[in-house]
Amino acid sequence: MLALDGGLDAALREVGRAVDAMMDRLVPAVPGLEAPVFEAMRYAALGPGKRLRPFLAVASASLFTVGRIPSLRVAAAIEMVHSYSLVHDDLPAMDDSDLRRGRPSAHKAFDEATAILAGDGLLTAAFGVLADEATHSDPAVRCELVRRLAEAAGGHGMVGGQMIDLVAERQALDMGAITRLQRMKTGEMIAFSCEAGAILGKAAAEPRHALKAYAHDLGLAFQIVDDLLDAEGSEAETGKKVGQDAARGKATFVSILGLDRAREQARMLSRQAIGHLDLFDQKADLLRDVARFVVTRRS
Amino acid sequence: MLALDGGLDAALREVGRAVDAMMDRLVPAVPGLEAPVFEAMRYAALGPGKRLRPFLAVASASLFTVGRIPSLRVAAAIEMVHSYSLVHDDLPAMDDSDLRRGRPSAHKAFDEATAILAGDGLLTAAFGVLADEATHSDPAVRCELVRRLAEAAGGHGMVGGQMIDLVAERQALDMGAITRLQRMKTGEMIAFSCEAGAILGKAAAEPRHALKAYAHDLGLAFQIVDDLLDAEGSEAETGKKVGQDAARGKATFVSILGLDRAREQARMLSRQAIGHLDLFDQKADLLRDVARFVVTRRS
């Protein structure tokens, strides 16, 4: 298993390195005329990043009896889906962001066509990774991972959330609509990251529901802090353009609640997330630390 | 089972109707602010089209003992992936086609952002359909479908082929490179369509390989005829712009072989495809008819 006992910072770095090594193998550089799309896939997946979602998958899996390889393969698949979503969201027709994780976004480093294809390739490959028998000996487990990822990433999850986000540029959303948008756009994939560990570990219903409830609160707290960083943070700290939401007149948690109430709401959700972990022993301390980290992060 | 005994035309229509009804259920219209992405998914998947790939899946499955629902779910998933690929390929940054299947392409009927998301949503949903237990009672079968679809549609298959197609606009390809391009871009998904029927039917190695060999020749014949139609066909007949390849100076089977030799090559591949079906009885007659149809079609 991974050494996850040196505190959150060390554990995040350890999982980040291991997930990157796994993605390096799963998304190799290839020769041939198709090489550019693989280069762009690698650029998007292996660039700098917090690797928060893969960490949640590995930390959740560590609560159960799950091997290192299954845990890292699922974590890698999740990061590949996250990377694809960033590549497509950054496109000129979508959020039009030239900067991502402190570097040119994929369509700037390559071109738009290659970026679109790289996103498609990463999404496709992620499902292939989950369905491969190296991920789990039980095909029913692999199918459940595929099915749940498709739900979390699709029209009722991340893709639908991004659609609402685009609609929100032309239409003022209220607090309920913004909460739903964010639950779909980022919350579902964060929930899947935690749930995936439980699926791999064939966990009982109770711990599985506890992890989903934890992830639900964590995801919302995470997003509120994202809005706070967009309103208050600096480009140097966050590695992406800030002030984007206000510039577009987009309603966010911050524009509706104000800075102070948004910050308090994020802290409340973080405490609530930790409360859902009461049925786990100290093995869940890293997940508790993540919930604290998410509301104090500066990028 | 589907009534497939009235000749190819009737069988194509029958399967087309049944697959469309299945996609209508699998990709429903939804209320809520995310509605546009589902509308665009339905526009792309349910528009006019030959439904050749789903037909190949259903006709291949009919050689084995496969139920109607599994067969149609797999056929629908394949058509959803095909539709996503058309939506993304038509984008301004890719092939920049305003017309598809006789109608405005998705980014013209909606907008670019919605079209990108609709493609992503269709691709994601297709994997969810395959992994769902309604597709087959044996999860090992479902996993194999997911894994093989990911191979056929990903960087080593369709996505890689489209990448090479973009490279080909700036670089002259020889016959070997064009053959590889087309095998990846269209051949792999055509091969998966046939193979999927065998996977669903838990077919032995021999019939499975025969179907793949059939599909390999069929796919190449199909593509050569596509090039012929682009060189000789009319927009009214094909429902898309013609003369595109020559206008872009792109090397195709036709530009390298010339019209006559390209036509002869397609006929030879069609005969060769039919030869691979010798181990099947008259149940494979529809697949034989498809191989004849593919080289005589006018759109």
Walk me through this protein's architecture.
The structure is a homodimer of 299-residue chains. Chain A is mainly alpha-helical and 299 residues long. The first copy, chain A, has one domain: Farnesyl Diphosphate Synthase. Chain A has 15 helices and two strands. Chain A has helices at residues 8-26, 35-46, 52-61, 68-89, 106-109, 112-131, 139-153, 158-167, 175-200, 205-232, 235-238, 244-247, 253-257, 259-275, 285-296; strands at residues 99-100, 103-104. In chain A, α8 (158-167) runs antiparallel to α9 (175-200). Chains A and B meet through α2, α6, α7, α8 and α9 of A and α2, α6, α7, α8 and α9 of B.
Please give the radius of gyration of chain A in angstroms. Answer: 18 Å
| The level-1 CATH class of chain A | Mainly Alpha
Supply the number of structural domains of chain A: 1
Total count of helical runs of at least 4 residues of chain A? 15
CATH superfamily of chain A: Farnesyl Diphosphate Synthase
Shape of chain A: globular
Fraction in beta strands of chain A: under 5%
Gross CATH architecture of chain A: Orthogonal Bundle
Largest interface, and how many residues on either side? A-B, 60 and 60 residues
Main features:
homodimer, 299 residues, mainly alpha, Farnesyl Diphosphate Synthase, two-stranded antiparallel sheet, 15 helices
